[in-house]
TrEMBL record:
It is found in: Membrane. It comes from the Bacteria. Pfam families: Cation_efflux (PF01545), ZT_dimer (PF16916). Belongs to the cation diffusion facilitator (CDF) transporter (TC 2.A.4) family. This is Cation diffusion facilitator family transporter. InterPro entries: Cation_efflux (IPR002524), Cation_efflux_CTD (IPR027470), Cation_efflux_CTD_sf (IPR036837), Cation_efflux_TM (IPR058533), Cation_efflux_TMD_sf (IPR027469), CDF_Transporter (IPR050291). Residues 8-202 form the Cation efflux protein transmembrane domain. It is a multi-pass membrane protein. The chain crosses the membrane at residues 7-28, 34-55, 75-94, 106-129, 149-166. One of its GO terms (biological process) is intracellular zinc ion homeostasis.
Amino acid sequence: MSVKKRAILISLLVSVLLMLAKFAAYFITGSNAILTDAAESIVNVIAGSFAFYSIYLSTQPRDENHPYGHGKVEFFSAFVEGILILIAGVVIIFKSSYNLIYPHALGQLLQGTVIIGVTGIVNMIVGLYLIKVGNDEHSITLKADGRHLLTDTYTSIAIVVGLVLIQLTNIIWLDSLLSILVGFYIVYSGYKLTRGSVGGLMDESDFTLVEEVVEVLQKNRHRPWIDVHNLRTQQYGPEFHIDCHVTLPYYFDLNKVHKEISQIDELINKSGVRKAELFIHADPCLPACCHYCHMSDCPVRSEPFKAEIVWTPEIVIKNKKHFENELL
């Protein structure tokens, strides 16, 4: 079993156990705040089940119908999880608002507080584990599930504090008020998760990856690499794709062009940057490129060299060659 599958399976099993524990705490206390936490655990279980399937699907090899692999299903999984969190938060707010107006008695709060506290600690441990594995494996599903569990941890902490206050003050309506506040936090967390997944589904560029690639190219640039532009990134689950245009001397033959492009591909994939599939388009140089071209032995130079244009993310993502005004 792969590392990703093992991690999400652990998360799913733990979520089922914690959900049962939280509902047990609710039945012995009648606390709306605890019910809030228990309801979110149902979302954890449903989302974990879908996440397990999405990770299974994302690890399948490419086929004729999916030439880029199946990795994008992870963004869809994160989107579904975010929507479920949003729905849970809205339901919690409405129910707690009703109970704020019509409060009911609570019981055995000490036992319920202990159970919620323990489940919060377990969620924190599993959440941090999922985020670590997600970062190592570049899995948005694991990172989303991990952040969701950390959200659950924060709500558990808030609920424990609130239950302690209720026991100290005997103010019953604090239970529903706390549940409403936690509900709004859950809605916000669901929104952030949904927003991130939509960005992935819409092929939103990973600017961190762009920065990493540009830094490697700038530090190791070769003289024939006159400029790099129109650089774009896409993520398909654990797989990354990078498109860019590279300006080379126009008099290079096809073998020489292929050699330079292959060196760029090798440099990116052996430099510590995340493994990626590169699609590089070679552009011929123009006379306007002479001002920043390092080819001192160029047989066709028409203008003297002035200064190097330092490659930055802001420059290389533009869909145009560099020109003299970028030296300013």
